[in-house]
Design brief:
Layout (H helix, E strand, L loop, with lengths): L3 H22 L22 E5 H7 L1 H41 L4 H55 L3 E5 L16 H14 L1
Helix pairs in contact: 1-2, 1-4, 3-4, 4-5
Length: about 200
């Protein structure tokens, strides 16, 4: 989730192509509360607006909740793996001392060694499964984020009629400077967070 602002940029850019298609296919969206365009937006020619991805990242309640849940799972999983690795390391150190003492024949040490190696391999496999599961959780959260944002952008696009809605992130992305009068972040946040409040 470290690169969430970049992920948001990709989400919003993917939505732009879909919005462009919707604008020219003349499909109408379901009736919802009227959204007002920012005062500085002119309604002639190509209509462009942008959403500040940094603001969505910091103020979209659902996204903040998702990041918190995933961060807790990562921390918990990491703590459990560290505890298991530490325990295994202690047992391996004890085994090594036994082996170096020379008081136990190698034939008797071999089963314990094999068991320790098997546990080490299983621990590595468990870490890999956990990484894959966390990556899957992040992918699902990303897909839901994309769906939520796209639905709200469609609402705004259908009511105000933007041809393009870009994502803007300070210091990154393709838009280096944005006119504040074209910023619709507030309207998008209202729609996104309103859905969360109704739950």
């Amino acid at each position: 989730m470290k690169n969430l602002s970049l992920v948001l940029n990709f989400v919003l850019l993917a939505a732009v192509a879909h919005l462009y298609y919707l604008n020219f296919s003349k499909k109408s969206a379901p009736s919802v509360e009227k959204i007002e365009a920012p005062a500085g937006i002119q309604q002639t020619g190509v209509r462009i607006a942008y959403v500040n991805a940094d603001t969505l990242d910091s103020k979209y309640e659902w996204l903040k909740d998702q990041k918190t849940v995933i961060e807790k799972r990562i921390k918990s999983a990491s703590n459990n793996l560290v505890a298991e690795r530490d325990k295994l390391a202690r047992e391996m150190a004890a085994f090594q001392k036994k082996a170096e003492s020379g008081t136990i024949p190698p034939a008797q040490l071999e089963p314990e060694y094999n068991e320790l190696m098997e546990r080490q391999q299983k621990l590595g496999e468990k870490a890999d499964r956990l990484d894959a599961q966390l990556a899957d959780d992040q992918r699902k959260a990303y897909n839901e984020l994309m769906s939520n944002v796209e639905a709200k952008l469609k609402t705004i696009q259908s009511q105000i009629g933007y041809d393009y809605i870009f994502s803007y992130t300070k210091g990154a992305g393709q838009i280096l400077l944005a006119n504040d009068s074209l910023d619709i972040t507030h309207q998008v946040l209202q729609l996104l967070n309103a859905k969360e409040e109704k739950k």
